[in-house]
Amino acid sequence: MSTPCEDTTRSGGCLCRLIRFTVCGEADYPHTCSCPHCQKLGGGPMMSWVSFPLEGFVSSGVRGELAWYYTFEGETKRGFCPRCGSQLFALDDGGTSIGVSLSALDDSSGLVPVNQSFRGDAVCWLPQVPDSRQAAS
Q: What sign has the CA pseudo-torsion 25, 37, 129, 134?
């Protein structure tokens, strides 16, 4: 069986180090999000996310289990540390990828946001992230 780790492996965790994780595989769609959920969960005007293949996700935090909260009941849940509250993950029910908060990664080099979701909910005093995705041919 092939592994999704052919491209890269990254690690990360929460502020208090109770939760540690590894993701491997190709990073997909680094972006910021200004939805009301991200603003409230992150305590700021936006959060930054990147997706990785779910099959390449390994939680190595043997000292603690993630806490989950559904932001969209039965559809999307967020994973966070139950001790320090760090927001770490977004996971769709039945999804094949996991969203990882860019700030949870130990090294997020090369992962520059290419778009901003929920522009209509963005604060007016902060410039929006330009949509720099390549147009499909």
A: positive
- Let me know if 99 is exposed, middle or buried by CB neighbors in 10 A (0-12, 13-18, 19+): buried
- Neighbour-count burial of 47, counting CB atoms closer than 10 A to its CB (0-12 exposed, 13-18 middle, 19+ buried): buried
What residues of the chain score a pLDDT lower than 50?
1-2, 4, 136-137
User: From residue 72, how far is each of 38, 48, 52, 75 by CA, in Å?
Assistant: 12, 18, 20, 5
The β-bridge partners of 91 are 77
Cβ atoms of 92 and 110 within 8 Å: the answer is: no
> pTM score, two decimals?
0.86
Q: What is the spatial distance between Cα 61 and Cα 59, in angstroms, rounded to a whole number?
A: 6
Which structure tokens are listed for 74?
Answer: 């039965």
Tell me the C-alpha distance between 114 and 136, whole Å.
14
Q: Collapsing DSSP states into helix, strand and coil, what is residue 105? A: strand
Side by side, which strands form the sheet with 87-92? Answer: 67-72, 76-80, 87-92, 97-101, 47-53, 28-33, 116-117
